């Protein structure tokens, strides 16, 4: 089976590498020449645990190939994944420019029956547009080659993407034809040894499933953030409330951690895009509008606590910031709450000394020299008036508090992820502020 994966971003590269890992012949395509030459040298464009190893091993074994030439590589392929970016357009809806360009090239150069699979997160109706685009390109060539378009949304979490691909909870495939369904079932069989299902459905339902999943998860977070804020006002501790409600299996104890708002390349973009889809159809998704509003406000919650603590005067105060990426185990800075918090601190005339285990390179690229970057967690705290915990990387869980106290000028911690408790911090000689707790 020859598979082509177009787009070597986070989704495409993980898909290509994991398909090669089970023995399939895969070509990963990207228009970016530098990315492709780097991948051939084993240099990856993203940090994702376990991915480098799989990419290098399968490239060396000759099962995973990299190329910029889609026109050439599509010849003889049986399955082509479209995993290129769908950045939000000006109005927040997904921009399909790149997806449709790829569809056009596929139509121009395919040589055999092909299943074209949309893997990027795309609005309902996109598979139909891809279908029309390929059919048009074939017509213009005077060819009537058979093809099918399927929708196979991904549910990978950054930081656990390889694991999620190799051992999926479920695989969702929207497909109309039996021939395409059989081929995709065959391709995914090696990943279903754990007994988890492939859910075959119609194409619009598969496209909608992806948005509904992310929108539901974002809703859980904003709901918990709202409850956390209320907990503070009524003197309750959201940590206890979380455990209390999470024990009910109908609610579940996962994904109900309050914090400083969700970030990343998926939830913010997908929630906005779904709201837009609703608007275009004349339907107001009231809950999702509120989810977004709560999330925007939540990014400011820590700053409000900081301002109150310092009586509104942050001028020349030094803030040690632990964690920059939008969540642990990734270097992704897209829509990271840290960016909003840094901007607000700088606006108030404060200084920021930041440390992140892997995202510093990305952060420098986005933030520049407006803040300083430390080599390790301890040195970020040098002469700091306060310590801000922004991303819950494991290495921040048990630091040497005696050394940190000696380093710091102030004695206060603002914990945006509730990884510490007020009691332990008071024992360590600090004042402590979390999210939705008594302190
Ligand atoms: C999310 C989904 O979880 C994946 O299933 C989906 O495939 C992916 O988007 C996508 O559409 O590609 P991801 O963005 O990698 O994955 O990260 P999550 O682990 O879902 O975290 C998203 C944000 O929610 C982070 O900012 C995280 O800190 C925050 N979060 C998560 C909370 O504030 N509380 C929680 O309880 C969980």
From TrEMBL:
Its EC number is 1.1.1.22. The active site is at 266 (nucleophile). Keywords: NAD, Oxidoreductase. The lineage of its organism: Bacteria, Pseudomonadati, Bacteroidota, Chitinophagia, Chitinophagales. InterPro entries: 6-PGluconate_DH-like_C_sf (IPR008927), NAD(P)-bd_dom_sf (IPR036291), UDP-Glc/GDP-Man (IPR017476), UDP-Glc/GDP-Man_DH_C (IPR014027), UDP-Glc/GDP-Man_DH_C_sf (IPR036220), UDP-Glc/GDP-Man_DH_dimer (IPR014026), UDP-Glc/GDP-Man_DH_N (IPR001732), UDPglc_DH_bac (IPR028357). The keyword Disulfide bond does not apply. GO terms for biological process: polysaccharide biosynthetic process; UDP-glucuronate biosynthetic process. Residues 320-422 form the UDP-glucose/GDP-mannose dehydrogenase C-terminal domain. Belongs to the UDP-glucose/GDP-mannose dehydrogenase family. Catalyzes the conversion of UDP-glucose into UDP-glucuronate, one of the precursors of teichuronic acid. This is UDP-glucose 6-dehydrogenase. Substrate binds at residues 155-158, 210, 255-259, 263, 327. SMART domains: UDPG_MGDP_dh_C (SM00984).
């Amino acid at each position: 089976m020859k598979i082509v994966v177009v787009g070597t971003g986070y989704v495409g590269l993980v898909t290509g590498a994991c398909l090669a890992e089970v023995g399939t012949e895969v070509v990963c395509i990207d228009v970016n020449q530098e990315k492709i030459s780097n991948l051939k040298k084993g240099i990856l464009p993203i940090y994702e645990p376990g991915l480098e190893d799989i990419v290098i091993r399968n490239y060396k074994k000759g099962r995973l190939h990299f190329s910029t030439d889609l026109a050439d590589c599509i010849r003889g392929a049986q399955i082509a994944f479209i995993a290129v970016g769908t950045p939000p357009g000006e109005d927040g809806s997904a921009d399909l420019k790149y997806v449709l360009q790829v569809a056009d090239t596929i139509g121009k150069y395919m040589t055999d029956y092909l299943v074209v699979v949309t893997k990027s997160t795309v609005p309902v109706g996109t598979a139909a547009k891809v279908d029309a685009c390929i059919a048009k390109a074939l017509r213009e060539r005077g060819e009537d080659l058979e093809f099918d378009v399927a929708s196979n949304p991904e549910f990978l979490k950054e930081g656990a993407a390889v694991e999620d691909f190799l051992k999926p909870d479920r695989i969702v495939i929207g497909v109309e034809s039996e021939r395409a369904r059989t081929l995709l079932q065959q391709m995914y069989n090696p990943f279903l040894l754990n007994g988890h299902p492939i859910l075959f459905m119609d194409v619009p339902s598969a496209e909608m499933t992806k948005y509904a999943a992310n929108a539901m998860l974002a809703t859980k977070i904003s709901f918990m953030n709202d409850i956390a804020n209320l907990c503070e006002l009524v003197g309750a501790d959201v940590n206890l409330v979380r455990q209390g409600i999470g024990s009910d299996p109908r609610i579940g104890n996962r994904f109900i951690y309050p914090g400083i708002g969700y970030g990343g390349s998926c939830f913010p973009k997908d929630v906005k895009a779904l709201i837009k889809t609703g608007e275009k159809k004349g339907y107001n998704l009231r809950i999702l509008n509120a989810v977004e509003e709560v999330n925007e406000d939540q990014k400011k919650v820590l700053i409000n606590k900081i301002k109150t603590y310092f009586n509104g005067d942050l001028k020349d105060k030094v803030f040690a910031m632990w964690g920059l990426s939008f969540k642990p185990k990734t270097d992704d800075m897209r829509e990271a709450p840290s960016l909003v918090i840094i901007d607000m601190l700088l606006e108030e005339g404060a200084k920021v000394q930041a440390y992140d285990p892997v995202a510093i390179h990305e952060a420098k690229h986005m933030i520049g020299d407006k803040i300083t970057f430390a080599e390790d967690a301890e040195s970020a705290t040098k002469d700091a008036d306060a310590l801000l915990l922004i991303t819950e990387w494991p290495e921040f869980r048990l630091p040497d508090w005696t050394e940190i106290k000696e380093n710091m000028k102030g004695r206060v911690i603002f914990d945006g992820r509730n990884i510490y408790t007020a009691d332990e911090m008071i024992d360590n000689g600090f004042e402590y502020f979390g999210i939705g707790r008594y302190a």
